[in-house]
Amino acid sequence: MMVHRIAIIGGTGKEGSGLAMRWARAGYEVIIGSRSASRGAQVAQQLNARLGLHSIQGTDNVSAARAGDVVVLTVPYQAHKDILAEIREAVQGKVLIDVTVPLNPNDVTVAHFPPGGSATQEAQAFLGDGVRVVCAFQNISAAHLKNPDHPIECDVLVCGDDEEAKAVAIELAQAAGMRGLDAGPLANAAVVEGLTPVLIGLNKRYKARGAGIRITGLADPQGK
Question: What is the domain-level CATH number for residue 87?
Fold first, then answer.
């Protein structure tokens, strides 16, 4: 699958805007989606100015989802269902990469599993078989992403039930300067999402910023 244009829903946030800059630098067209088209356009202009490029556009969520070859969802879990309902028709026939993490409202360092098992599984169930949903990028620090000159020594664990969709996410991870690894079926998304609160806890306890995951012992550098 050839990917030229990436739509990032929630692209005005820290995670989404960081990914937007890295993909724009890698030569992709990026469309930032926001609840407000003017807000999306404003952030896109700021990111373009920072990069010295003109490849990032901004608009509303639905318009962005319609325009993207691939759609990346980077929103808080509290907004997850509402945003999915908003873009449901626009993402049919596409790959959707869900970056959402359900965090425990009482303690963000304790794993929290939603009724559907994981946010990604809930997205797949809600959107239906017409959308190929994969889980990726949950364990990457936004602080690292926001500095496009900073090398990221973290692996991106990718889960999904469609091999081509996982391959797309792995390609985009590599384009953003990270190693993407096939972490198995969508059922494993609960484990990948659950690692985020573990990393938040490590950051707090060890006074670190941006702890990440690195898989060792793989014979091939691409994890194949």
Answer: 3.40.50.720
Half-sphere exposure of 222 (CA within 13 A, CB side): 7
End-to-end CA distance of the chain: 18
Residue 51 lies in a domain: yes
pLDDT digits over 60-117, tens only?
999 999 999 999 999 999 999 999 999 999 999 999 999 999 999 999 999 999 999 9
Distance CA 90, CA 101 (A): 22
Q: Among 9, 4, 2, 3, which residue's Cα sits nearest to residue 123? A: 9
| C-alpha to C-alpha distance for 96 and 19, rounded to whole angstroms | 15
Which alpha helices (DSSP H) does the chain contain, by range?
Answer: 14-25, 37-51, 61-67, 77-87, 119-127, 142-145, 163-175, 189-205
Q: Any bridge partners for residue 179, and if so which?
A: 155
Please indicate, yes or no, if residue 218 is contained in any of the structural domains.
Answer: no
Whether residue 141 is contained in a domain is answered as yes
Number of domains within the chain: 1
The C-alpha angle with vertex 16 and arms to 151 and 204, in degrees rounded to 5, equals 65
Domain holding 64, by residue range, is 5-205
